[in-house]
């Protein structure tokens, strides 16, 4: 009999917290992290949709520059095709511009840039954001902190999607058949994975020390991984709503 009131109290608490989340419109900023093939782009899109986050992918920003053959795109193209990391002088201003354009324009209803998210036919500015593809080095992690501090924001959580190397290679090969991406070829894939091990994994340690890192198993189906990420993010939102 005793646990019935306890259960009742718990479910009331959950109800109150979910109301608080809605009312306070909890804004969280997250980084999604993972090796090529880990599915960070797919997961980031799903999360952006579910929680109404702004999604900024540095890979997508760069590919758009390449497609439009802008001066930046022309500089980045060969580097990306080799599977190397483009220089900070290219990627940092792109990210900075995307963040500022989307976070600081005074009129929330003004038509923004082509990246503006449309909801029901109207321009719309989400509260939280999800960064995908950045940082890839410790120095980029420090730069991201600086960019966020300029916007009076901070990173609330870094979600690392963990997938074993064999599975990464299998997925990229599968994707290569349909993506048409110039960097999804055998040699380039191996090079990108090696670069990730050498330059990007130290970023995990960086965020682990700062207490922001949450690692989720990403070896299964998309729906399983998203379920794990959502559990983590809802905990982060819950904690933030209480403060
Ligand atoms: P993946 O995770 O499969 O490598 P992305 O779309 O994130 O795919 O990135 C594609 C390419 O864009 C990278 O291989 C790299 O050349 C370039 N790129 C993306 N983000 C960055 C970054 N933060 N720093 C340097 N290069 C980047």
Strand order of the largest sheet: 2-5-1-6-7
Structural class: alpha/beta
CA radius of gyration is 19 Å
Share of residues in strands: 5-15%
- Contiguous runs where pLDDT drops below 50 for at least 5 residues: 14-23, 105-116
Largest sheet: 5 strands, parallel
Mean pLDDT: 83
In N-to-C order, the SSE pattern is HEHEHHHEEEHEHHEH
How many β-strands, per DSSP?
A: 7
Total of helices: 9
Q: Alpha-carbon distance between the termini?
A: 34 Å
Give the proportion of residues in helices: 55-70%
Bound molecules: adenosine-5'-diphosphate
> How would the global form be characterised?
globular
Oligomeric assembly: single chain
Task: Describe the protein in words.
The protein has about 240 residues and is of the alpha/beta class. The protein contains 9 helices and 7 strands. The protein has helices at about 5-25, 40-50, 60-70, 70-80, 90-105, 140-150, 165-180, 185-210, 220-240, and strands at about 30-35, 55, 115-120, 120-125, 130, 155-160, 215. Strands 2-5-1-6-7 form a 5-stranded parallel sheet, sandwiched between helices. Strands 3-4 form a two-stranded antiparallel ribbon. Helix 1 (about 5-25) crosses helix 9 (about 220-240) and helix 5 runs parallel beside helix 6 (about 140-150). The longest helix has 24 residues, at about 185-210. It is globular, with a radius of gyration of 19 Å. Adenosine-5'-diphosphate (ADP) binds near residues 58, 62, 80 and 83. Adenosine-5'-diphosphate binds next to helix 3 and helix 4.
């Amino acid at each position: 009999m005793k646990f019935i009131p306890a259960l009742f109290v718990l479910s009331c608490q959950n109800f109150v917290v979910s109301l608080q989340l809605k009312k306070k419109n909890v804004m969280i900023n997250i980084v999604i992290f993972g090796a090529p093939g880990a599915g960070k782009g797919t997961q980031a899109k799903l999360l952006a949709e579910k929680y109404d986050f702004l999604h900024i992918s540095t890979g997508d920003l760069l590919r758009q520059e390449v497609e439009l053959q802008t001066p930046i795109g022309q500089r980045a193209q060969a580097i990306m095709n080799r599977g190397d990391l483009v220089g900070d002088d290219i990627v940092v201003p792109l990210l900075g511009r995307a963040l500022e354009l989307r976070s600081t324009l005074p009129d929330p209803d003004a038509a923004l840039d082509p990246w503006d998210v449309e909801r029901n036919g109207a321009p719309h500015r989400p509260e939280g954001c999800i960064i995908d593809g950045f940082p890839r080095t410790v120095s980029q992690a420090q730069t991201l902190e600086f960019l966020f501090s300029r916007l009076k924001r901070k990173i609330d959580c870094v979600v690392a999607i963990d997938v074993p190397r064999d599975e990464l290679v299998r997925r990229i090969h599968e994707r290569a058949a349909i993506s048409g991406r110039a960097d999804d070829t055998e040699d380039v894939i191996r090079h990108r994975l090696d670069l990730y091990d050498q330059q990007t994994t130290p970023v995990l340690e960086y965020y682990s020390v700062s207490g922001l890192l949450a690692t989720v198993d990403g070896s299964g189906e998309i729906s399983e991984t998203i379920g794990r990420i959502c559990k983590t993010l809802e905990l982060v939102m819950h904690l933030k709503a209480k403060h």
